[in-house]
Amino acid sequence: MATKAPRGTKDILPEEIAGWEYVEENIRKICRLYGYEEIRTPVFEYTELFQRGIGEGTDVVDKEMYTFLDKGNRSITLRPENTAAVARAYLEHKLYADASLTKLFYIGSMFRHDRPQAGRMREFHQFGVEAIGESNPALDAEVIVLAMRFLEELGLKDLTLAINSVGCPKCRPNYQDKLRDFFRDKLGEMCSDCKSRFETKPLRLLDCKADSGKEFMKDAPKMEDSLCDDCRSHFEGLKGYLDSLGVKYEVDPRLVRGLDYYTKTAFEIKYPPLGAQSAVAGGGRYDGLIEEVGGMNTPAVGFAAGIERVLLALSMQNLLPEKKNNPDVFVVKIGDEANVPAFKLLENLRKAGIYAATDYAGRSMKAQMKQANKCDAKYVLILGEDEVKNQTVQLKNMENSEQETVALDDIVDKIKNI
After folding, report:
1. Which of 255, 287, 316 is the last residue of a domain?
2. Which of 64, 105, 252, 318 could form a disulfide with 112 if both were Cys (CB 3.0 to 4.6 A apart)?
3. What CA–CA distance (Å, rounded) separates 358 from 372?
């Protein structure tokens, strides 16, 4: 129906914007402190980027992407996530040329054809950071701490941090074999998705929502027991850095994330009161992604946070700022002679950085005063026939009802001073 937004999308209305601005201001503030610069990538990319970057066989690529042919018969996809797009931009614009470490952040719309639910729509918004070029576990810790600080400084409490290592191409194949051996005689009890993932994506068996509560899942092999020396050292280094700052975390052996590009570190931050969809941020290391999309072997780590879910969590804790958009000054005009002088006065006030409003419906003075009171204006300026003739204006303080006559040429400076 043309008069309704498509299912899974929503309008962000004026009364909601204060919350979005509050979150976005905090994003930019925290990223500036940590040295991350903003990047804005296109809303759509060539489909191959996500097929190669995220991985065929993942739910995102196989089930959730908005993919179509453009007028040039090229396969185009609305971005389902932004890390692959940032990796593409990093290579295309040679961002690696200026420094060994490139630190970027983004805010933008993502698109996935999924069942709409609280805090997650088909068009949703993410904030994320990507640190590209270094393999030091201290960088993993920095990214995690940045994510936690961003959420905590918004006022969120009761957050939980889970971390894990998903290994690397050297040690992961051995672990995948262990998983197949363990789950092979349990295939009959698994959901259809897990049965299809058994051979190609055995790690995904660990975070299946349908099978997570089944008894056989409790004894599944842990990746930590199969890590190579490099991955084990990296994971211990990460834990050491987090411990040094007193960051509380739990090691969750079933945390694998849903995208193919993760290596070594994986983490997730949850706000449990949100229920089943409690994850508000998550990410990890993706040392193979840059090479996968056409670059050199380049280490990288990052995370993304769902802005709608963050706003939902803030709303649950009554932490969203109140919408305040009240004019400083309301200009009341009486009679046709006042229309042009009042219009000029409005513009002079606005040029001086003063939020000024007026009535455009030709209402009576009484109705205009009611309107000024309703919009909670601090001051009212009254222009009538006598004021126009004398080049003055009546200044009324709406809080104490005091009123005085001020020269029209002086009123802007007077308002600025008070």
Report:
1. 316
2. 64
3. 8
How far apart CA 268 and CA 252 sit, in angstroms, is 10
pLDDT tens readout for residues 364-385: 999 999 999 999 999 999 999 9
Domain carrying residue 360 = 329-417
pTM: 0.89
- Of 264, 282, 316, the one marking the end of a domain is 316
- Residue 208 placed within a domain: no
How big is the chain, counted in residues?
A: 418
**CA dihedral of 143, 146, 152, 155, whole degrees rounded to 10:** -130
309 with 411, same domain: the answer is no
